[in-house]
Structure formats: structure tokens, C-alpha cells
Amino acid sequence: MIDLYYWTTPNGHKVTMYLEETGAQYRIIPVNIGKGEQFEPDFLKIAPNNRIPAMVDHAPEGGGDPISVFESGAMLLYLADKDKAFIPQDPRGRAEVLQWLFWQMGGLGPMAGQNHHFSQYAPEKIPYAVDRYVNETNRLYGVMNKRLADRAFLAGDYSIADMAAYPWVVPHERQGQNLDDFPHLKRWFEEIRARPGTVRAYEKAKEVNPDQAPMSEEAKKIMFGQTASVVKG
């Protein structure tokens, strides 16, 4: 059994996509980041960075005490290695998946996240910042589109690399992107969207956070006003 500390964000969706694909037994523990629940001391013990998702595996490989893991990419890799699923076992195939997993963690996620912040949430719309991150998101979409021109998925077969990237493409319209400009990426996106595991994962999101209301001003203060003081608990 896995305890998944989760909220309905792109990084949260990555892990539910994996767990639904594998049919794993897991329990969602909602962490409402708009209310500041990620700063609770008990959560800090599991997730030192005060971010969702995080998880506790109560049945780790080889037995022993439960293992806690934070950071969505590390969680996907941990689960894939444990299950020997959605990551090749040969060195070349594994390297392909790891490159694209780390590409998402270091590029697509952070750049699209800044895109969201400056275009959607910042109290002052700074044209330079908006253009910087909309353009970089566009470049990264172009990288994916070129990669997918001659293969079905980012690293060959469907893998944790695709699960990591897909949720960050879901809000493409909010990111100022048109998927019609990226036909190979659009084909990939639609194929993953139709997978039963993806459908179930996003249905879980609706159960956890049915309102999906726009972020309130109070939530913005909680989300975007953090300093080192939040990790002293």
C-alpha cells in the first residue's frame, strides 16, 4: 500500500497516472496547497521541500521499514524500478527514458510553471517576463514535436517520461500554446489523454478537488510568499 500525498497539480497528476496504469493499491491523502496544508510539520517530515506530491511506500522491495519519497520525478523512477514497469531494463533504453524524465523535471516543468505564474497569477503583468516564459515554453514544445516525429512516445514505448511530460501539456492554452502548431505533439497528447489510466487519474483529481476554483488572493499569498521560515517546523 502506498500513501500518496497529493493535490491536483501537474506534478501530482504524474504519479496518479503511473499508479492507475499499474493498478497499484494506494491511498490519496489530500494536501490542499491553497490552504497551506503543505506547511504542516508532519508533512515536512515526508516532503522537506514543502511541495506535493510525496509518498510513503509501506511495502518496499525487500521489506523493512516504509520508504518515503518526495519529488515527482524521483517518485516515478522509484516506482518504475520497483515494479520494473514503464522503464526499459536494458542500459540504452533506460538512458533514453532518464534523459527525457530529467528534461521534463529540469526544463518543461519549471519553464511552464513560470509561464503560469507570470501570465496567470502575478499581480503585475510584466511583458518581458510573460514573453520570456511563453517563448521558452514554445521552444520546449518544439523540442517534443521534433522528437515525436518518428516515434510514438518520447523514449520509444510509453514510459514514465511521457507520464512526467503529459500533465504539463494539458494546460497548453493557458501557456499561450496552440497544439495545431505541433502536429506530432498533438498526436502524442491525444493518444495519452485517451489511455484508461490517464482517464482514471484525472477522474481522481475531480474527486479530490471537485470545485477546481480559480486561485483566491489568499491562496496566492500562501503559495507565492514563502521564505525559509516555512521549513522551520
Automatic annotation (TrEMBL):
Residue stretches making up the GST C-terminal domain: 90-212
UniProt xrefs under PROSITE patterns: GST_CTER, GST_NTER
Domain GST N-terminal: residue ranges: 1-87
MF terms (GO), sorted A to Z: transferase activity
UniProt keywords, alphabetically: Transferase
InterPro entries: Glutathione-S-Trfase_C-like (IPR010987), Glutathione-S-Trfase_C_sf (IPR036282), Glutathione_S-Trfase (IPR040079), Glutathione_S-Trfase_N (IPR004045), GST_C (IPR004046), Thioredoxin-like_sf (IPR036249)
Pfam families, per the entry: GST_C, GST_N
Superkingdom of the source species: Bacteria
UniProt cross-references to PANTHER family, sorted A to Z: DISULFIDE-BOND OXIDOREDUCTASE YFCG, GLUTATHIONE S-TRANSFERASE-RELATED
Family membership: Belongs to the GST superfamily.
Stated name of the protein: Glutathione S-transferase
